[in-house]
Amino acid sequence: MRRLIILTEGFTEPIAAKTASNVLRYRPHEVVALLDGAHRGQTAQQLLGVGGSTPVVARLDEAPQANTLLIGVAFAAGRLPARWRQVILQAVGLGLDVVSGMHHFLADDPEIASLAASSGSRLFDVRRNDEREVASGRAMRENCLRVHTVGQDCCVGKMVVALELSQALVAQGHDAKFVATGQTGIIVEGDGCPIDCVVSDFVSGAAERLVLANQRRDILLIEGQGAISHPRYSAVTLGLLHGCAPHAMILCYEAGRTAVIGMPHIPLQPLGMLRKIYEMMAGLVCPSRVIGVAVNSRRLSDAQATAERERVRNELGLPVCDVLRDGASELTNAVLRMRSARQSFISSSAS
Amino acid sequence: MRRLIILTEGFTEPIAAKTASNVLRYRPHEVVALLDGAHRGQTAQQLLGVGGSTPVVARLDEAPQANTLLIGVAFAAGRLPARWRQVILQAVGLGLDVVSGMHHFLADDPEIASLAASSGSRLFDVRRNDEREVASGRAMRENCLRVHTVGQDCCVGKMVVALELSQALVAQGHDAKFVATGQTGIIVEGDGCPIDCVVSDFVSGAAERLVLANQRRDILLIEGQGAISHPRYSAVTLGLLHGCAPHAMILCYEAGRTAVIGMPHIPLQPLGMLRKIYEMMAGLVCPSRVIGVAVNSRRLSDAQATAERERVRNELGLPVCDVLRDGASELTNAVLRMRSARQSFISSSAS
């Protein structure tokens, strides 16, 4: 049983520390503390809006029951910040395991790896993969409905939406599964593929294999990555979209955001345009449509959120909800309608 | 000075051996022989339609003047065929250098690397890269015109078109450069970035850096990869498109091809639709338009090629030519018109 202390030093806020936030949300029983000296004595709830009374500590020895250090921040580039290296070395020196979703692989870092070899720490690089197969384009199981969360931008909640929909469908008795495609999702779900760290020639192949491995299920909720209009990550988004070949998509966005996150000079594309682009681009491989919108309304009041939901519902003529604020039922209903329609179509084709 | 023997064993035909064909076309003075036991005694010209009297030999010792073995085939997956391994080991044992564009890195292969260490062979893995930066989205030099070759499919001639246009523009006295993005282009040009082997998070960043490194030139002809509708490689295509942010695109296709190469059950998208898709997707980052079409008419007679060119010219209302059959002038003129128009626009904006 892992007991996690989550390193968020210098980045304990909801967007940067999204790995931390979502592990607190979905694996709360595993989390002992957050590590951020600047916020010692506060709680995860105060800083991240999730995690309840989980304490923020300044040093590893303030959470002696922890047996694993989790890197709680996803950096855009591949490097390890210098001040983080010291904390990791300290943890490894104490014999803690380390779980990391960084592009900088800890096991390939000679200093960290050698210290781990002597202390007995295990290093888990969640993004490491050896995907080396192109997509086959082979037929997928017709009775497995593939639903994919796609976004207007990074960090809008595509993973949360896929997870919440999956959990809600399972709670209703459906055979649904969350298919993780990013490091946080993999840490939460325990399996998946870190698609943004796959060599670009093999992105669609890796996504296809992930679907094929899970297609015995009735409904897959496949976590999206990046955005098809994102100047940095569109390669990841499109390769994943074509590899997982969804029947249906949920378009995710954050209310109030106007520019690409981290690139304030680049305006976001309108939802209506993105809906058309996603449908057209997905359709190059498999007919697909956007069946609902997931709004992340974390920065809105209840009244503002209701108004925003109504506005987008009217604009796009689609179900809209914030799965954390409103529950997922409006979107699970859309998924189940899609499943019924497809089942009727498959039956009529077969007869 | 490298003197190449090119390994094409079992694959000495134009599409599979496209690395061999294009090194023969653009670096003929470096090539000593092709290695393919099944075709011993024939010439490169007979088998590949290029390379003149370059002989095909069955064994390394039949080309004793060679000092470098070049892997002349680009395999889709990452593995090294067993029978090729023997030839590579033999070459390394003889002290030849080896140049490879495979995803399987020779220097990471313990048996090959250890033999090379003792024989003094150098192993050049052209696809190896350490790209670890996301795109910055920073402004590029306005007076550098970025032209990108994009395709209906793989293996239609995107590299050849970019190279031929670049050479023709240089011959006319323009400051143009071919920007290589694939292993063959890098081998021919001597620089570039193997974009399809970059980790997907960093594809656009790598493409952007490649443009920034060359933007002192007046005109860049940036080699395209894959196709935006390709079920295997669309990630590479879109990441490159967004990273290099072209002002203009040349749409490349092979006449007579109806299905995705290697995936006969997947029909190609029509050129008119691809034109719209490429313009729309490129436009998410930088306004761009298709300014011409490059047809690869290798399987047509002269009369058929003329008819095909006329048909597409009428259908799309764009300049169309086969750069190898017709020369590149129709497309270089389109590039130069685009450059004049942009220069006027930049001058008028500045004044």
Overview of the structural elements:
Two copies of one chain form a homodimer. Chain A is globular and about 65 Å long. Chain A has 351 residues and is an alpha/beta fold. The model of chain A has no long low-confidence stretch (mean pLDDT 96). In chain A, strands 3-2-1-4-5-6 form a six-stranded parallel beta sheet, with helices on both faces.
Going across the biggest sheet of chain A, name each strand in turn: 3-2-1-4-5-6
Q: Given the structure, what is the number of helices of chain A?
A: 12
Helix content of chain A: 25-40%
The most extensive interface between chains reads:
A-B, 45 and 45 residues
Stretches of chain A where pLDDT is under 50 for at least 5 consecutive residues are none
Shape of chain A: globular
Order of helices and strands of chain A: EHEHEEHEHEEHEHHEHEEEHEHEHH
Rg measurement of chain A, Å: 20 Å
Our estimate of the beta-strand percent of chain A is 15-25%
Structure summary, number of beta strands of chain A: 14
Alpha carbon gap, first and last residue of chain A? 51 Å
Oligomer: homodimer
Report the average pLDDT across residues of chain A.
Answer: 96
Secondary-structure blueprint:
2 copies of one chain form a homodimer.
Chain A (H helix, E strand, L loop, with lengths): L3 E4 L10 H9 L4 E5 L8 H5 L7 E2 L10 E4 L10 H12 L3 E4 L9 H10 L3 E3 L19 E7 L6 H14 L4 E4 L3 H7 L13 H12 L4 E4 L11 H11 L3 E7 L4 E2 L2 E5 L3 H13 L5 E8 L5 H15 L3 E2 L1 H4 L2 H22 L1
